[in-house]
Every structure is written in structure tokens, then in C-alpha cells.
Specification:
Blueprint: E1 8-20, H1 36-51, E2 65-73, E3 76-83, E4 85-90, E5 96-101, E6 104-110, E7 117-121, H2 130-145, E8 150-156, H3 161-169, E9 174-182, H4 187-190, H5 195-203, E10 208-214, H6 228-241, E11 242-248, E12 255-256, E13 263-267, H7 268-273, H8 276-286
Length: 287
């Protein structure tokens, strides 16, 4: 008797970073925030306050969605988001009718300041791409964090080897390399970025740094693994610090690195039978 391999549910992983909207901090009567540094220190607590709201709601301009809070423990917040989808079915009298369906995805937000990871379940019946869900989360959390003078950015986590595979695939054809990097606020990943670039971003209160490397018309970029500056930028971006894209000779569209975010997998049957707390306990080990 052949034993079937268990069916797995995949979660794509994303990194979020929380930054003060401005260095100009307006003090409030309750002295909730006393300085820019104080706001930076309290940013994860303010996010936790939002995630803990009893009637937290998310909106989506393209579809009707519903958010459900399933529980929290040890800085991990568990949610479900469903979305209205219209399906067609055939009736016994040879007609078609529309019915409503509400497929859902599970979302886990790890709000530990040394982690700041979001895991989003892949379910194409609900959303074609988990990245769509990441945009929904980002837009809605920004709406709730704005009164605290905070902004959140969410980017996929992927293997840095994805970058080098693209470099090898299009060797001698890469004309331009674009980095869009979020100003780091996590010490455990920001060490990969050149100190001068970090200082520049911080000195002008920039949230994003756009760095373009372009060859001459007659030549191509020389991108080498031994280049410490390039390797540091790639390392930071791959850990959820931003986007990298290539302009390749002969291709009209830019090639992007973050097409395949890192995934974690959970047995489908186990997932269906797990309580929220049991799922959180598993995610603690995986995130």
C-alpha cells in the first residue's frame, strides 16, 4: 500500500519595518511620546495596540473583505482574512446562477522587534498572490498607525541566491541595477548596509533610498560576488529590506528578485485541526 505524502499549506514570509513619519515629534498632553527616540523605542508597542483593538477592521478597494482576530501569544498575532468571490454554478434546469463564496487566508504577524515577520497563507481561491494580502495589511496598518506618526513597510523575504542566479542567467547583458531600500530600523539586518548610506538616509529623514547603477550604452555592468558593497545591499534587501530590479538587454520588462518569497509549510490536515494557540506554538518555531 502506497503512503501518500501529506498535503502542505504554504505560507510566504515578509518583513515589516516601522518608521516615524517625521522626525518632528509633536508632544501630546498625556506625554505618551517624549521624543523621536522614544517613539522609535515604542513603535512595536503601538503596533501591538493596533493589532489588539477589539474591533479592528481592514478595508480593500477592490473587494469586500472581513478580518477576524484569532489570538495572540508571545508577540505573535493570528488573523484570518476572507474575501467575497462570486462563483457560477449550473442548476438542474440548465441555467447558470451566481453564488457567494468567502475563501480565507491565515495571517501571522510576529511583532518581536528582532523578528518583525509576517507569514501569509497561499490560497489562490482567495487571493491570486499573497503579495496582494501584504499590500492590504500595509495599507490598513498605515491607516491605523498614522495618528501615532508611524509608517509601516512590508517587503518579501527571499534567498539572496535568487539575485545571483539572475546575474548568472543574464551574464554580460545587465545594463542597469536598481535598489529600492527601506531605511533600516532593525539592528540585526541593518549591519549589511554601508554606514555612509545609512547615515545619508537618516540625515535627510528619508524612508527609502533609490540607488541606480547604469552601464554605458556600449557596455554592461560587472556584478561580482566578491564586491562587498553589492553583496551587503543584496543581503539586506533579501531579508525584507527592499526591492532589486534588473534592466537586461533584449528584455522589455525589468527582472525582479522578489518573485519567490521564502516559504514555510504546515501539514494541511494538522492546520485544519489546530487551535489558534497550537498554530501559534508551531509558528514560534518556524518564524
Amino acid at each position: 500500500m502506497q503512503i501518500k505524502n501529506p498535503k502542505l499549506v504554504s505560507f510566504e514570509t515578509y518583513r515589516f519595518q516601522i518608521l516615524p513619519i517625521s522626525k518632528s515629534i509633536q508632544l501630546t498632553i498625556d506625554n505618551e511620546v517624549t521624543s523621536y527616540e522614544d517613539l522609535v523605542e515604542k513603535k512595536n508597542q503601538f503596533l501591538a495596540d493596533v493589532l489588539n483593538k477589539p474591533k479592528l477592521t481592514f478595508e480593500h478597494s477592490k473587494s469586500k473583505i472581513t478580518l477576524r482576530f484569532d489570538g495572540t501569544d508571545d508577540n505573535i498575532f493570528l488573523f484570518r482574512i476572507n474575501v467575497l468571490r462570486k462563483l457560477k454554478r449550473h442548476t438542474p434546469d440548465f441555467k447558470e446562477e451566481q453564488i457567494e463564496d468567502y475563501p480565507a487566508v491565515t495571517i501571522a504577524i510576529h511583532n518581536d522587534k528582532t523578528k518583525q515577520i509576517i507569514a501569509i497563507e497561499k490560497n489562490s481561491k482567495a487571493f491570486a498572490h499573497p503579495e496582494t494580502v501584504s499590500h492590504i495589511i500595509e495599507n490598513n496598518l498605515n491607516r491605523h498607525l498614522k495618528p501615532k506618526n508611524l509608517a509601516i513597510y512590508i517587503e518579501p523575504i527571499y534567498s539572496k541566491e535568487d539575485f545571483w542566479e539572475i546575474v548568472e542567467k543574464y551574464e554580460n547583458r545587465i545594463k542597469q541595477l536598481d535598489f529600492e531600500l527601506i531605511r533600516p530600523n532593525m539592528s540585526n539586518i541593518s549591519s549589511k548596509i554601508d554606514e555612509q548610506l545609512k547615515a545619508l538616509e537618516n540625515s535627510v529623514d528619508a524612508h527609502k533610498l533609490n540607488l541606480k547603477l547604469q552601464s554605458s550604452k556600449e557596455a554592461n555592468l560587472i556584478i561580482d560576488r566578491e564586491n562587498a558593497q553589492i553583496d551587503g545591499l543584496v543581503d539586506y534587501a533579501s531579508q525584507g529590506g527592499g526591492n532589486i530590479s534588473f534592466k537586461v538587454k533584449g528584455l522589455r520588462k525589468k527582472v525582479k528578485t522578489a518573485k519567490t518569497p521564502t516559504e514555510i509549510n504546515v501539514d494541511e490536515m494538522e492546520l485544519k485541526n489546530l487551535s489558534p494557540q497550537e498554530l501559534i506554538n508551531i509558528l514560534k518555531l518556524l518564524l
